[in-house]
């Protein structure tokens, strides 16, 4: 039990913080707009979620849901999705191995036949129609970083908002 | 030969005038006659006013300079000159704000046993409390970020409280790093501490400067400071280009969050390197950096007002007068068929207007409802009535999507209303729908189908209607209701009528009509007939109107202007404006009504309007000016409302030709008379119109030299 609590409260390490920020930055550059950000209650997930929220300038509080805990079953995850079906777009932050399983099942009509390498720190966009999902893209932290660094090396003029 | 009214020296600079307005609000914070928690609230208001000033005006100015726009206002100050003026005056103002906080308000609250403690002043139980609080509430929500030149700077949200740290890696000799922690909005900025006696608070920012270093293991903390970044919040929507206005506004809203930084506020005792690195990162000039001798977010002082349960340190709440119908009328429609109703909010309750719409929504005899909405409250009962009514009636709403800072709320309302079957329109391209109109069509018991209308000077917002002054007219007059019907036609079908008489409408004929009314008064004066103008509004900036008023004054028209905020007109200039006075009333309530009186040679006319005398109201928005025909109501506006404001010698500040506002010094034995306090007493039944003293009009020339001026009591 003690280990479980320690695990719950383990914060992101510096690398984790950087990864989350890059993913957040990527989502911003893609002009992603979401209505809701939901995270597993574990500290590292919440921190990831708030870093992403911050980069997106998303000002509402991050919600926590047990359905995103490392040990939560797929049915719980499905239930969570169903609860938010009136939203146009949401972000979910969870853990492996079950998040990989959720992603795979969502895009393969619940069979789990889809083989996905959903690395730690990666982000995937899934378009849902009812319970059936289509994977639009998946970006690893390495890719997010490479994209950002590539942008940085081009000189950007300072422009205000137009 | 009359002097030319075109000279730029005859116009006060708009930004300078706005800053003078905010100084008047600060005066209220410094005024010891106000209850102490209200003073704290006034200070918080000056801070949120200043936030918006930077987000909109300063940001817009810097944008124009960057884009190379060199246009000026009537005062002909260049954009660069304005920037210098703003730089100097805002720094002075901020010093005055903190002086007020540190030297006046903190001690005043301490005298009432309300204290803000520093970390080193906590007793044992309070220390234990904050330790627990940090662990349970704060720690889970904070994520420390270290700034590394190899990686992008962390995003700092507009106006969010942030903690900046200057760090050194442990066991490494060289290099300093900056740490940044954004404090989530969900954490309260003011924390109530347990105390044996009295009320003790601690600022969250102080707490975090103490706690934040724990998040940076592996680093030595050189310095910790709180800071706050303010960003350009102007929306730039290309209306003509956008196919779907709602989507365009949504997208722009999203982008607003990433506007350029225009100001940095940081603890005065921050290590200079933190301020420098931040300033560099946000590309700010020195004048855009403000060092604060106190909490960086003064607007959050409002929490003191909310959280502290000491009603004796706040204004005594007053009861708005409910609209009572005589027994001969079963409902408001019966009454309106007999006579028009005028309401002066908040002295007369806004509930009457809400009821008017609610009863229409529920009444099976009402077949159609039309409404304009500019700003409304979060849980607007009016919108909810309209949604409920849509099931059985024709409900049409003209909803402004670009009401600044309310865009998101209005978008949500648009969706909810459309879902319920309300026909939602967004008005005319490029023109904000600012008029405040309600129209309903009813099959009356006598078999006639009639229109009933509400025309207002203020928004359909139950929250603000409690502390904004505004005027409402409810009427069933066929002339007026038919005109309002035409205005809705203009708004929804984009079809202009040749006239909307007796109403006038911006941008069609309101401006020309206003100039014509002033011109008519000028001719009365020239012909030796009684000529007087009394105009109450929020701001006077339009050059055409000002010139017209100057010419009227030159011919002898007596002009009293009651302008709460910005005023570019210079009163009392020899040969130009000797017959013009300008006063501003700043008090417990926010003066918001727009009322216009013309003596017209003895056939007095009174108008209420949604428009101030600013270019945006006259030319860039849809506004309405509506006459009051009923003799009794006209009398009430003239004697009670305008009469009270003109007699105010407590909260009225008089503008002189140099742009300075001063209180009038009362003569010996003269009683203090506050229009707002009087109108409250009147509504509560403890005063009558007879209690209004003589209006303070123009001073005869001889006295003007000897009058002493009093600033900042």
Could you name the key traits of this structure?
heterodimer; A: 162 residues; alpha/beta; Rossmann fold; three-stranded parallel sheet; two-stranded antiparallel sheet; 6 helices; 5 strands; 43% helix; 15% strand; disordered C terminus; B: 713 residues; polyphosphate kinase like; Endonuclease, Chain A; ten-stranded mixed sheet; eight-stranded mixed sheet; 19 helices; 27 strands; 21% strand; globular
Instruction: Quote the CATH topology of chain A.
Output: Rossmann fold
Strand count of chain B: 27
* Strand content bin of chain B: 15-25%
Oligomeric state of this protein = heterodimer
Strand order, main sheet of chain A: write it out: 2-1-3
What is the CATH domain class of chain A? Alpha Beta
End-to-end span of chain B in angstroms?
Answer: 42 Å
Proportion of residues in β-strands of chain A: 15-25%
Q: Number of helix segments of chain B? A: 19
Computed CA radius of gyration of chain A, to the nearest angstrom: 16 Å
Number of helices of chain A: 6
Low-confidence stretches of chain B: 700-713
Sum up the overall morphology of chain A in one term.
globular
Mean pLDDT of chain A: 87
Question: How would you describe this protein?
Answer:
The complex is a heterodimer of chains A (162) and B (713). Helix content of chain A is 43%, strand content 15%. Chain A has 162 residues and is of the alpha/beta class. Chain A has a single domain (14-145), classed as Phosphoglycerate mutase-like (Rossmann fold, 3-Layer(aba) Sandwich). In chain A, the strands form 2 sheets. A 3-stranded parallel beta sheet of chain A has the order 2-1-3, with helices on one face. In chain A, strand 1, helix 3 (43-55) and strand 2 (63-64) form a beta-alpha-beta unit. In chain A, helix 2 (14-29) runs parallel beside helix 3 (43-55) and helix 2 packs across helix 6. The longest helix of chain A is centred in the first third of the chain and has 16 residues, at 14-29. Chain A is globular, with a radius of gyration of 16 Å. Chain B is of the alpha/beta class and 713 residues long. Chain B folds into 3 domains: 8-313, Polyphosphate kinase middle domain (polyphosphate kinase like, 2-Layer Sandwich); 332-497, Endonuclease Chain A (Endonuclease, Chain A), CATH 3.30.870; 505-704, Endonuclease, Chain A. In chain B, strand 11, helix 11 (381-389) and strand 12 (394-399) form a beta-alpha-beta unit. In chain B, helix 2 packs antiparallel against helix 3 (79-111) and helix 17 (631-647) crosses helix 18. The longest helix of chain B is centred in the first third of the chain and has 33 residues, at 79-111. The radius of gyration of chain B is 27 Å and the shape is globular. The chains are: A alpha/beta (162), B alpha/beta (713). The A-B interface holds A 12, 14, 17-18, 21-22, 24-25, 28, 31, 33, 43, 46-47, 50-51, 54-55, 57, 59, 61, 148, 152, 158, 160-162 and B 59, 62-63, 66, 140-141, 143-146, 151-152, 154-155, 157-158, 182, 184-186, 232, 234, 236, 250-251, 254-260, 283.
């Amino acid at each position: 039990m003690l280990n479980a609590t320690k695990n719950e409260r383990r914060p992101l390490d510096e690398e984790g913080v950087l990864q989350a920020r890059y993913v957040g930055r990527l989502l911003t550059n893609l002009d992603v707009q979401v209505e809701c950000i939901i995270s597993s209650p574990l500290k590292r997930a919440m921190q990831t979620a708030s870093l992403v929220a911050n980069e997106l300038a998303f000002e509402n509080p991050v919600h926590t849901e047990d359905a995103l805990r490392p040990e939560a079953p797929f049915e719980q995850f499905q239930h969570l999705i169903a609860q938010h079906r009136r939203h146009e777009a949401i972000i979910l932050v969870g853990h492996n191995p079950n998040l990989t399983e959720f992603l795979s099942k969502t895009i393969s009509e619940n069979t789990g036949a889809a083989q996905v390498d959903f690395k730690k720190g990666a982000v995937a966009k899934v378009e849902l129609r009812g319970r059936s999902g289509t994977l639009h893209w998946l970006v690893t932290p390495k890719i997010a970083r490479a994209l950002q660094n590539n942008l940085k090396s081009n000189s950007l003029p300072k422009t205000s908002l137009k | 030969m009359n002097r030319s009214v075109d000279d730029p020296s005859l116009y006060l600079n708009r930004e300078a005038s706005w800053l003078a307005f905010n100084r008047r609000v600060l005066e209220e914070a410094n005024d010891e006659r106000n209850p102490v928690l209200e003073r704290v609230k006034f200070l918080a208001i000056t801070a949120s006013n200043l936030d918006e000033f930077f987000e909109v005006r300063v940001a817009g100015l810097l944008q124009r300079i960057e884009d190379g726009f060199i246009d000026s206002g009537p005062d002909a100050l260049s954009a660069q000159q304005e920037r210098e003026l703003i730089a100097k005056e805002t720094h002075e103002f901020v010093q005055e704000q903190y002086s007020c906080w540190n030297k006046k308000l903190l001690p005043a609250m301490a005298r009432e046993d309300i204290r803000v403690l520093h970390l080193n002043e906590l007793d044992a139980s309070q220390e234990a409390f904050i330790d627990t609080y940090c662990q349970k509430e704060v720690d889970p929500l904070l994520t420390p970020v270290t700034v590394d030149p190899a990686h992008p700077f962390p995003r700092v949200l507009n106006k969010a409280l942030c903690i900046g740290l200057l760090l050194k890696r442990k066991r490494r000799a060289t290099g300093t790093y900056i740490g940044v922690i954004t404090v989530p909005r969900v954490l309260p900025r003011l924390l109530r501490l347990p105390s044996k006696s009295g009320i003790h608070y601690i600022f969250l920012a102080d707490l975090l400067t103490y706690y934040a270093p724990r998040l940076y293991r592996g680093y030595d903390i050189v310095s910790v400071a709180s800071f706050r970044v303010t960003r350009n919040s102007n929306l730039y929507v290309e209306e003509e280009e956008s196919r779907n206005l709602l989507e365009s506004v949504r997208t722009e809203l999203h982008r607003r969050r990433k506007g350029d930084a225009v100001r940095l506020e940081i603890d005065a005792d921050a290590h200079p390197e933190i301020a420098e690195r931040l300033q560099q990162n946000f590309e700010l000039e020195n004048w855009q950096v403000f060092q604060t001798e106190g909490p960086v977010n003064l607007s959050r002082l409002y929490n003191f007002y909310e959280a502290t349960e000491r009603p004796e340190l706040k204004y005594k709440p007053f009861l708005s007068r409910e609209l009572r119908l005589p027994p001969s009328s079963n409902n408001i429609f019966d009454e309106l068929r007999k006579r028009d109703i005028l309401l002066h909010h908040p002295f007369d309750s806004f509930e009457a207007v809400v009821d008017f719409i609610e009863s229409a929504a529920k009444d099976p005899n009402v077949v159609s409802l039309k409404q304009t909405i500019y700003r409304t409250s979060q849980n607007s009962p009016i919108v909810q009535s309209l949604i409920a009514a849509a099931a059985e009636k024709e409900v049409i709403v003209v909803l402004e999507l670009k009401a600044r800072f309310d865009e998101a709320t209005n978008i949500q309302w648009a969706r909810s209303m459309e879902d319920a079957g309300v026909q939602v329109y967004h008005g005319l391209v490029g023109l904000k729908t600012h008029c405040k109109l309600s129209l309903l069509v009813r099959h009356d018991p006598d078999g006639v189908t009639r229109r009933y209308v509400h025309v207002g000077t203020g928004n359909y917002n139950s929250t603000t209607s409690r502390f904004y002054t505004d005027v409402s007219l409810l009427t069933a007059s066929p002339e007026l209701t038919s005109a309002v019907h035409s205005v809705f036609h203009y708004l929804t079908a984009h079809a202009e009528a040749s006239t909307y008489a007796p109403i006038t409408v911006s941008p069609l004929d309101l401006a020309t009509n206003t100039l014509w009314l002033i011109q008519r008064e000028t001719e009365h004066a020239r012909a030796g007939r009684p000529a007087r103008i009394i105009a109450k509004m929020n701001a006077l900036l339009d050059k055409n109107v000002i010139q017209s008023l100057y010419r009227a004054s030159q011919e002898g028209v007596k002009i009293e202007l009651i302008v709460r905020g910005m005023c570019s007109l210079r009163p009392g200039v020899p040969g130009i404006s000797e017959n013009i006075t300008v006063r501003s009333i700043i008090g417990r309530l926010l003066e918001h009504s727009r009322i216009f009186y013309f003596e017209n040679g003895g056939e007095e006319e009174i108008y209420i309007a949604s428009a101030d005398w600013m270019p945006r109201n006259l030319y860039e928005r849809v506004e309405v000016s509506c006459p009051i025909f009923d003799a009794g109501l006209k009398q009430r506006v003239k004697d009670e409302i305008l009469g009270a404001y003109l007699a105010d010698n407590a909260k009225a500040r008089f503008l002189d030709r140099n742009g300075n506002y001063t209180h009038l010094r009362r003569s010996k034995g003269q009683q203090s008379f506050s229009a707002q306090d009087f109108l409250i007493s009147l509504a509560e039944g403890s005063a009558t119109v007879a209690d209004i003293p003589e209006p303070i009009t123009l001073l005869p020339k001889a006295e003007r030299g000897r009058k002493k001026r009093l600033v900042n009591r």
